[in-house]
Write a structure and sequence with these properties.
Blueprint: E1 2-6, H1 63-77, H2 90-102, H3 109-112, H4 117-130, E2 135-141, H5 157-162, E3 168-180, E4 185-201, E5 207-215, E6 228-234, E7 239-241, E8 257-261, E9 272-283, H6 296-303, E10 308-312
Parallel strand pairs: 4-7
Antiparallel strand pairs: 1-10, 2-9, 3-4, 3-9, 4-5, 5-6, 6-8, 8-9
Helix pairs in contact: 1-2
């Protein structure tokens, strides 16, 4: 694996919400998951194959950049207005933003048929930095990522919930698997990025700690904004298989979260959805613009700090 260091202005480790295992004795971590719905009304839900967006490859490989673009509207509402480009309408702004994030030098999802974790970080960080802000990143999951971002091999629902507060964005990487009962094996056939907008409550408004609320860029979830209330449960056995980069250690699947319920599964790629990873972006407080500038000097100052490590798979 080669490591490419790109000077794009990231302060690693600042503002991260770390997962805490401090749960009262006798209580499971998942029992203490709070309800979060505040991001639902301020996050947009673009369909990746919407022809009006004119995304590369017809948007078929652009779930990652679209998931990122959805969150930028919520963050703009929370005090980071430069994250939404100025266009004649919100739709046109969203299409332009998604095209930028899908491009080479960002996630490169259009030309490389999808985005891994490292390119999701690169794309989101480059865009945020260009708009004059600073971001930090953290990842839970088995997917490959630089060590400074990793917060654990297995995604934890409580960690996801904690990071839904404030100027943060949460994106999850779902793996499509075919399950072979005879060998207790989950064979990975593909993957998908979605935006997490809430948790802890079901579609009827009932308290349910085993629910994640997502906006899914896939056309399987429709072309209008739609919240999907996805149920999760934890695997207690199994191994993974698939391409060479998928770890196939015995028992590797134990502890992973299986997603069902309101999730629209890509049945062409599998019969089971597992939560392969969770990527969190945290924004630092915006730097006030200099009174005598148009913001360019402030944006440049934000670019000239630390570097992002990008692992090239």
């Amino acid at each position: 694996m080669r490591v490419l260091t790109i000077a794009v202005g990231l302060l690693v480790g600042v503002g991260l919400t770390l997962y805490s295992a401090s749960v009262p004795a006798g209580e499971r971590a998942e029992d203490s998951i709070p309800v979060h719905t505040e991001k639902m009304g301020i996050t947009r839900d673009l369909t990746q194959t919407d022809r009006r967006a004119d995304l590369p490859d017809g948007g078929r490989s652009c779930c990652g950049p679209v998931a990122i673009s959805n969150s930028m509207f919520a963050l703009a509402t929370l005090g980071y207005p430069n994250l939404v480009p100025e266009r004649a309408s919100r739709d046109e702004a969203h299409w332009a933003l998604a095209r930028t994030l899908a491009g080479d030098g960002y996630t490169a999802a259009g030309s490389l048929r999808g985005a891994n974790v490292s390119r999701m970080i690169r794309g989101a960080n480059r865009y945020v930095t260009e708009q004059g802000y600073r971001a930090s990143f953290a990842f839970q999951g088995w997917r490959t990522v630089a060590a400074e971002y990793r917060q654990g091999k297995y995604p934890e629902p409580l960690w996801i919930a904690e990071n839904l507060e404030g100027p943060r964005a949460v994106w999850i990487n779902i793996g499509w698997y075919r399950y072979e009962e005879a060998t207790d094996t989950y064979d990975r056939q593909g993957g998908h990025w979605v935006t997490v907008v809430g948790c802890g409550i079901d579609a009827d408004g009932n308290r349910d700690s085993n629910i994640l609320i997502i906006y899914d860029p896939s056309p399987r979830s429709g072309y209008q904004r739609r919240a999907d209330y996805v149920r999760w449960d934890r695997l207690d056995s199994g191994r993974l298989s698939g391409p060479g980069w998928v770890p196939n250690d015995p028992g590797m699947a134990r502890g992973l979260l299986r997603l069902s319920g309101g999730l629209e599964i890509n049945t062409r790629r599998g019969d089971t959805a597992l939560l392969d990873g969770v990527l969190v972006m945290t924004l630092e407080p915006p730097v006030p613009p200099e009174p005598t500038s148009d913001g360019a000097r402030t944006r440049q100052a934000n670019r000239d700090h630390v570097a992002v490590r990008i692992d090239l798979d």
